[in-house]
Structure of glutathione transferase:
Amino acid sequence: MSGKPRLTYFNGRGRMESIRWLLAAAGVEFEEVYLETKEQYHKLIRDGFLLFQQVPLVEIDGMKMVQTRAIMSYIAGKYNLYGKDLKERALIDMYVEGISDLMHMILLFPFSSPDAKEKDLESIKERATNRYFPVFEKVLKQHGQDFLVGNKFSWADVQLMEAILAVEEKVPAVLSRFPQLQVFKTKMSNMPTIKKFLQPGSARKPPPDAHYVETVLKVFNQ
Protein backbone atom coordinates (compact mmCIF):
# COMPACT_ATOMS: atom_id res chain seq x y z
CA MET A 1 0.00 0.00 0.00
CA SER A 2 1.26 3.46 -0.84
CA GLY A 3 1.53 6.26 1.67
CA LYS A 4 -1.54 7.94 0.19
CA PRO A 5 -4.78 8.10 2.20
CA ARG A 6 -7.21 5.43 1.04
CA LEU A 7 -10.87 6.40 0.81
CA THR A 8 -13.66 3.80 0.77
CA TYR A 9 -17.10 5.00 -0.27
CA PHE A 10 -19.50 5.04 -3.20
CA ASN A 11 -18.42 6.45 -6.56
CA GLY A 12 -20.27 9.68 -5.89
CA ARG A 13 -20.36 12.68 -3.60
CA GLY A 14 -22.29 11.87 -0.45
CA ARG A 15 -20.49 12.29 2.86
CA MET A 16 -17.09 11.59 1.32
CA GLU A 17 -17.09 14.61 -0.99
CA SER A 18 -16.21 17.10 1.76
CA ILE A 19 -13.28 14.85 2.70
CA ARG A 20 -12.12 14.78 -0.93
CA TRP A 21 -12.39 18.57 -1.02
CA LEU A 22 -10.31 18.99 2.13
CA LEU A 23 -7.57 16.60 1.03
CA ALA A 24 -7.44 18.18 -2.42
CA ALA A 25 -7.29 21.70 -0.95
CA ALA A 26 -4.35 20.57 1.21
CA GLY A 27 -2.61 19.26 -1.91
CA VAL A 28 -2.82 15.62 -0.77
CA GLU A 29 -3.20 12.84 -3.33
CA PHE A 30 -5.40 9.92 -2.33
CA GLU A 31 -6.66 6.56 -3.53
CA GLU A 32 -10.27 5.46 -3.68
CA VAL A 33 -12.10 2.17 -3.35
CA TYR A 34 -15.74 2.21 -4.44
CA LEU A 35 -18.53 0.31 -2.73
CA GLU A 36 -20.77 -1.33 -5.30
CA THR A 37 -22.28 -4.35 -3.54
CA LYS A 38 -23.81 -5.25 -0.20
CA GLU A 39 -21.21 -8.02 0.10
CA GLN A 40 -18.35 -5.49 0.02
CA TYR A 41 -20.04 -3.48 2.76
CA HIS A 42 -20.62 -6.49 5.01
CA LYS A 43 -17.04 -7.68 4.50
CA LEU A 44 -15.77 -4.32 5.77
CA ILE A 45 -17.93 -4.78 8.86
CA ARG A 46 -16.79 -8.38 9.42
CA ASP A 47 -13.14 -7.38 9.02
CA GLY A 48 -13.53 -4.70 11.68
CA PHE A 49 -12.92 -1.75 9.36
CA LEU A 50 -16.15 0.08 10.17
CA LEU A 51 -16.26 0.93 13.87
CA PHE A 52 -19.92 1.96 13.79
CA GLN A 53 -20.85 -0.01 10.64
CA GLN A 54 -20.83 3.23 8.63
CA VAL A 55 -18.91 4.78 5.78
CA PRO A 56 -17.03 6.97 4.87
CA LEU A 57 -13.87 5.05 5.77
CA VAL A 58 -10.48 6.74 5.45
CA GLU A 59 -7.25 4.83 6.04
CA ILE A 60 -4.56 7.36 6.95
CA ASP A 61 -1.39 7.26 9.05
CA GLY A 62 -2.03 3.66 10.07
CA MET A 63 -5.58 4.40 11.25
CA LYS A 64 -8.92 3.22 9.91
CA MET A 65 -11.00 6.33 10.52
CA VAL A 66 -14.78 6.60 10.36
CA GLN A 67 -17.18 9.43 11.25
CA THR A 68 -16.91 12.30 8.78
CA ARG A 69 -16.35 15.03 11.35
CA ALA A 70 -13.52 13.12 13.08
CA ILE A 71 -11.84 12.39 9.75
CA MET A 72 -12.00 16.01 8.64
CA SER A 73 -10.80 17.35 12.00
CA TYR A 74 -7.76 15.10 11.74
CA ILE A 75 -7.00 16.12 8.16
CA ALA A 76 -7.46 19.82 8.95
CA GLY A 77 -5.13 19.56 11.94
CA LYS A 78 -2.53 17.50 10.10
CA TYR A 79 -2.31 19.92 7.18
CA ASN A 80 -2.46 23.19 9.17
CA LEU A 81 -6.01 24.11 8.14
CA TYR A 82 -7.42 24.30 11.67
CA GLY A 83 -6.42 27.72 13.00
CA LYS A 84 -3.51 28.81 15.17
CA ASP A 85 -5.18 28.49 18.60
CA LEU A 86 -8.29 27.28 20.40
CA LYS A 87 -10.28 30.44 19.63
CA GLU A 88 -9.65 30.15 15.91
CA ARG A 89 -10.47 26.45 16.05
CA ALA A 90 -13.76 27.25 17.80
CA LEU A 91 -14.68 29.70 15.03
CA ILE A 92 -13.77 27.17 12.36
CA ASP A 93 -15.87 24.55 14.15
CA MET A 94 -18.87 26.91 14.32
CA TYR A 95 -18.66 27.81 10.64
CA VAL A 96 -18.12 24.20 9.56
CA GLU A 97 -21.09 23.00 11.64
CA GLY A 98 -23.32 25.66 10.09
CA ILE A 99 -22.24 24.82 6.56
CA SER A 100 -22.68 21.11 7.31
CA ASP A 101 -26.32 21.71 8.21
CA LEU A 102 -26.88 23.21 4.74
CA MET A 103 -24.84 20.48 3.05
CA HIS A 104 -26.93 17.81 4.79
CA MET A 105 -30.00 19.10 2.97
CA ILE A 106 -28.12 18.91 -0.34
CA LEU A 107 -26.84 15.44 0.49
CA LEU A 108 -30.37 14.13 1.04
CA PHE A 109 -31.88 15.86 -2.00
CA PRO A 110 -31.10 13.08 -4.54
CA PHE A 111 -33.04 10.67 -2.34
CA SER A 112 -36.17 12.85 -2.20
CA SER A 113 -39.32 11.42 -3.71
CA PRO A 114 -40.38 13.01 -7.01
CA ASP A 115 -43.32 14.65 -5.27
CA ALA A 116 -41.03 16.28 -2.68
CA LYS A 117 -38.28 17.51 -5.05
CA GLU A 118 -39.74 20.96 -5.67
CA LYS A 119 -40.43 21.59 -2.00
CA ASP A 120 -36.99 20.36 -0.94
CA LEU A 121 -35.27 22.51 -3.56
CA GLU A 122 -37.16 25.54 -2.30
CA SER A 123 -36.05 24.72 1.25
CA ILE A 124 -32.40 24.59 0.15
CA LYS A 125 -32.75 27.95 -1.60
CA GLU A 126 -34.50 29.53 1.37
CA ARG A 127 -31.99 28.28 3.94
CA ALA A 128 -29.00 29.24 1.81
CA THR A 129 -30.19 32.77 1.06
CA ASN A 130 -31.81 33.63 4.40
CA ARG A 131 -29.93 31.68 7.06
CA TYR A 132 -26.47 30.51 6.00
CA PHE A 133 -24.97 32.68 3.25
CA PRO A 134 -25.86 35.97 5.02
CA VAL A 135 -23.69 34.87 7.96
CA PHE A 136 -20.60 34.40 5.82
CA GLU A 137 -21.30 37.54 3.79
CA LYS A 138 -21.32 39.48 7.09
CA VAL A 139 -18.17 37.81 8.44
CA LEU A 140 -16.18 38.57 5.30
CA LYS A 141 -17.45 42.14 5.16
CA GLN A 142 -16.80 42.93 8.82
CA HIS A 143 -13.19 41.85 8.97
CA GLY A 144 -12.36 42.78 5.37
CA GLN A 145 -10.09 39.77 4.88
CA ASP A 146 -9.85 37.09 2.23
CA PHE A 147 -10.55 34.16 4.55
CA LEU A 148 -13.13 33.43 7.22
CA VAL A 149 -10.78 32.94 10.19
CA GLY A 150 -7.52 34.68 11.05
CA ASN A 151 -6.93 35.81 7.46
CA LYS A 152 -5.50 32.37 6.76
CA PHE A 153 -6.86 29.60 4.54
CA SER A 154 -8.68 27.02 6.69
CA TRP A 155 -11.08 24.10 6.68
CA ALA A 156 -13.97 26.57 6.99
CA ASP A 157 -13.06 28.20 3.67
CA VAL A 158 -12.92 24.83 1.93
CA GLN A 159 -16.30 23.83 3.33
CA LEU A 160 -17.89 27.13 2.33
CA MET A 161 -16.53 26.91 -1.21
CA GLU A 162 -17.94 23.40 -1.60
CA ALA A 163 -21.33 24.57 -0.33
CA ILE A 164 -21.45 27.59 -2.64
CA LEU A 165 -20.82 25.47 -5.72
CA ALA A 166 -23.26 22.77 -4.59
CA VAL A 167 -26.07 25.29 -4.07
CA GLU A 168 -25.27 27.10 -7.33
CA GLU A 169 -25.77 23.85 -9.24
CA LYS A 170 -29.40 23.92 -8.08
CA VAL A 171 -29.94 27.69 -7.73
CA PRO A 172 -27.60 29.39 -10.25
CA ALA A 173 -28.29 32.97 -9.10
CA VAL A 174 -27.99 32.24 -5.37
CA LEU A 175 -25.01 34.60 -4.89
CA SER A 176 -26.67 37.58 -6.58
CA ARG A 177 -27.31 39.26 -3.20
CA PHE A 178 -23.89 38.42 -1.77
CA PRO A 179 -21.03 40.44 -3.31
CA GLN A 180 -18.52 39.35 -0.67
CA LEU A 181 -19.23 35.71 -1.38
CA GLN A 182 -18.87 36.34 -5.09
CA VAL A 183 -15.37 37.71 -4.48
CA PHE A 184 -14.61 34.85 -2.09
CA LYS A 185 -15.69 32.28 -4.69
CA THR A 186 -13.43 33.83 -7.33
CA LYS A 187 -10.42 33.91 -5.00
CA MET A 188 -10.97 30.34 -3.87
CA SER A 189 -11.39 29.15 -7.46
CA ASN A 190 -7.97 30.57 -8.31
CA MET A 191 -6.09 28.95 -5.43
CA PRO A 192 -3.80 26.39 -7.13
CA THR A 193 -4.96 23.29 -5.25
CA ILE A 194 -8.64 24.16 -5.56
CA LYS A 195 -8.28 25.23 -9.19
CA LYS A 196 -6.76 21.81 -9.90
CA PHE A 197 -9.63 20.05 -8.10
CA LEU A 198 -12.19 21.96 -10.16
CA GLN A 199 -10.65 20.83 -13.46
CA PRO A 200 -12.20 17.99 -15.48
CA GLY A 201 -10.62 14.66 -14.66
CA SER A 202 -9.98 15.44 -11.00
CA ALA A 203 -11.24 13.35 -8.07
CA ARG A 204 -14.21 15.70 -7.65
CA LYS A 205 -17.45 13.84 -8.25
CA PRO A 206 -20.32 15.06 -10.48
CA PRO A 207 -23.77 15.77 -9.07
CA PRO A 208 -25.47 12.55 -7.92
CA ASP A 209 -27.44 10.77 -10.61
CA ALA A 210 -29.95 7.92 -10.60
CA HIS A 211 -27.20 5.29 -10.75
CA TYR A 212 -25.55 6.68 -7.61
CA VAL A 213 -28.86 6.69 -5.73
CA GLU A 214 -29.62 3.16 -6.91
CA THR A 215 -26.19 1.89 -5.79
CA VAL A 216 -26.47 3.45 -2.32
CA LEU A 217 -29.95 2.01 -1.79
CA LYS A 218 -28.86 -1.41 -3.09
CA VAL A 219 -25.84 -1.61 -0.73
CA PHE A 220 -27.70 -0.47 2.37
CA ASN A 221 -31.26 -1.68 1.89
CA GLN A 222 -31.32 -4.82 -0.21
About this structure: The beta strands are 6-9, 31-34, 57-60, 63-66. The mean pLDDT is 95.
